[in-house]
Fold this protein.
Amino acid sequence: MAKSSRKVPGLNASSMADVSFLLLTFFLLVSNMDVDSGLARRLPPPTTDQTSVDVQRRNLFVVLVNAQNETMAANQQSTEWYANEAELRGEAGGKVALKDKVKEFILNTSNSPELPELEEQDFGAPIGVVPVTAAHVVSIQNDATTSYKAYIAVQNEVVRAYNELREEGARKYFNTSYGELTEEQQKQIQDLYPQRISEAEPKNYGGQ
Amino acid sequence: MGKFNKSGKREMPEMNTASMPDIVFAILFFFMVTTTMRSETLMVSMKIPTASEVQKLEKKSLVTYINIGPPTDTRLGTGTQMQLNDRFAQVTEIQDYIAQEKASMNEADQPLMTVSIKADEDTRMQYITDVKQALRQAYALKISYSARAGEN
């Protein structure tokens, strides 16, 4: 066999850059980067007959958003009015922020008869048997002409209250932040502070 | 002063661009992995509200979108419209739409289906509530109020 000493001609790869640039521009144009995010909720299944569930007055925390986008937060203990979002977050007007009121309502550390009843429940190690307000309900009600923005702002504050409680629970029982927990541990904390938010049907009070 | 003669036969050395395709391909793969295809053109304009406690919707294939807002085409007025897939729709059509989306899904994924409501922040709650009631009737119970992350 003759030993080949011929040189293989080199492939001209200078147009490769052009081709890959074309591909790159194509993908840049047809794709979008933002991942959708939002406040997750679970709707109640449809019912054929309107059965009303009796909730004890002390277990109910009513958050009303009216047509002027003002918020009223009321439980058996107290009632608070918030005229705008800054007041809602406790940054203006010198009022207790909505999330702090919700937290106080959910925890009922003082075992007040005007806040939800406490019930001993076992959540497994390391939480053990602790009293929780298992029957509390945060009911968000809105008017037909409430703006979506105000509604989301109120929802956000309520979710923030739950998230802060879970964070505090994780710090207390697992000595770490909620995001660092394993899935089972997160489940335990979620069982400890379940999101019990009810979204009522709108009432056409300030209607046209 | 021939030392500084500029009329010499020196040539500018050519830059080696052999690694340029590699770099561009690296960028290309980055974009292919991090992005998702734009599925539909929006016919309603919306300014999504901001919220601080948002969660990310992880699995794209499980998410169905409902877009609500004033039409981009101003000739169609400024009233709130809803877009399902690539056309305007009425609230009564939601049930069919959800059933159709559910049918196109893997059977194991159907209970995990999430509906993302992307609504303009000036929408009246009446409209959102109607949509929510329709979703309840269609047994699409996992919903998400789309919101941008950030301090509101």
Observations:
- Chain B has a mean pLDDT of 84.
- The domain at 50-149 of chain B is CATH 3.30.420.270 (Nucleotidyltransferase; domain 5).
